[in-house]
Structures are given as structure tokens and as C-alpha cells.
Amino acid sequence: MVGELLQPGGYLKLLHLGLQDADVSARCFHNGRFIQKMRQKLASLPNVRVEEGTVTCLIEEKGSVKGVKYKTKEGELSAYAPLTIVCDGSFSNLRRSLCNSKVNISSSFVGLILKNCQLPHENHSVLILSDTSPMSIYPISSTEIRFNYLNTVVAPQVPGGMRDALVRASSDKENIRRMQLRSMPAQNFQTKPGCLLIGDAFNRRRPGMTVALSDVLVLRDLLRTLPNLNDTNAVSKSFQRFYTRRKPLASTINIVADVLYQLVLSDPARKEIREACYDYISLVLEGYLKMD
Q1: Could you tell me the pTM of the whole model?
Q2: Which among 43, 78, 135, 192 would be 20 to 30 A from 65, CA to CA?
Q3: CA neighbor of 237 nearest in space, from 202, 191, 203, 200
């Protein structure tokens, strides 16, 4: 889907993690480029060795996770460690062995990149609550705009210049990307010694980057207090504290995200509520523009 929208709280987490040189102050950017910069930063650390492969399964012995099996061009290999962190995203193939949470698919995102599209306010996102669905349009580079819903019914509701860019971009169907809107509540998690499940693999919502960075920050501070990761009891206690400490921020964003998605559903009964929400957001954004 290319685009990433990082909330101000997520940007502050980057600063706390010492990753301010990732330079994402605009908060709207290419997800892939951002991740690559994070990996480059990781690989530059003297105590880190990076290996690339596709993890196929966890290695378990007597109910404890000892590492992973993974595939590379050379074949299938194994990696062992006192602590394995599972963070393989919303389409995790390791999640089912660690928890029984139900995956809910409520709808889909449709993404399209618009070239040389003029926004009403430079370097600001545009939110359109149309009659059929919400549209989020924001810059991810100096010449590219991410358009977050495409349909011939709603396209006419896009303002002038952006509508022309949409028509040009949609002429090539290969430009259109589709992604399921998946919700995975953090329930029925079965803690296994030696393993920790975090990120979208554990608790999926939109937006998720801020929560992911917050989880990393909480986990970092907890692991710093442990003299030895081989102490199973101490590590397990840190895991329990991790899931407790992450809740205030994660739960707040989860609740707000769920309410907003329910609000923008194409339901005539919610039209007035949607309009009231739009008016409120407009007032907030107007205040930000005046500050700029």
C-alpha cells in the first residue's frame, strides 16, 4: 500500500528510541523506505548481526521456544536464542501457535498513487467523508500523493485538481492496490517461555505504527533491567509487565480507531453523526493551519 501516516506520538517514540536521524518529521512517507532506513540503522550497530530469510516455524522444546527455522537461498537453517521476538505482521504465520484470537475482516482499503497532484493545502492530508466511504489523501514524497479509496461512484466527489490526477492514475489498473482491513484483538494470548509476540501480529488496528513503536520502547526499558535473558522466570515476569504497561496507549488508540471506522460506515442512520465528526475535525485542522 506504500503510504504510511505516523501520528505525532509515534514520531516522539522515534526520538526516545534514538532514531531521530530517520528524518520523518513530515509524518507522511513511503513505508518501505522508512523500514529500510530502520534496518540500515539496526545493521550499523556493532552488536547486531542481520540475516535475511523466511521464517517457517518456531523451535519448541518442552513447551519453551528456543528459536526459529528459516529458509534462505542456501536451504533451511535454524537460529537459537534465549529470547525470540515474533513480529511478522498482520499476516503472521506464527501467531496461531501463540494465541487463539479471532481475525475479523470488516472491509478493504484500496490504494492508488497520484502523480503531480495539487493538494488544497501543501504538505497536509485531506480527509473526504463521501456518501459511500471515507477517503484519506496525503503526500508521501514531493511528487506522489497516496489516495486511500478508489471507486467510480466516489471519484466524482473528489475536488477538481485531485480528481483529474485520480482519473489519470486509475487508467492503469496495475497501479491499484487492495488490502483487507483486519482487526485482531489482543485476547486469549498464551505466553510461552522464551518468546514474545508484538506488533500487528499481536494486536492489529489502524493506525498501528505509533503502537508498534511504543511497544518497542516499553520492551526496551524492561529488557534493560534483566542481567541475563537465560533467566526464564525473570523474562516471563517482564513479559507480564510488558502487556500491562502497553495497555494505556494501545487501548486508547484501539478504541478511537474502532469508533472512527464504525462512524464512517455507509449507514444513513449515522449521517448526522458523521457530519458532526467532520465539522469537529475541520475545526481542529483549521486551528493547526493557523498555527502553521
Answers
A1: 0.65
A2: 43
A3: 191
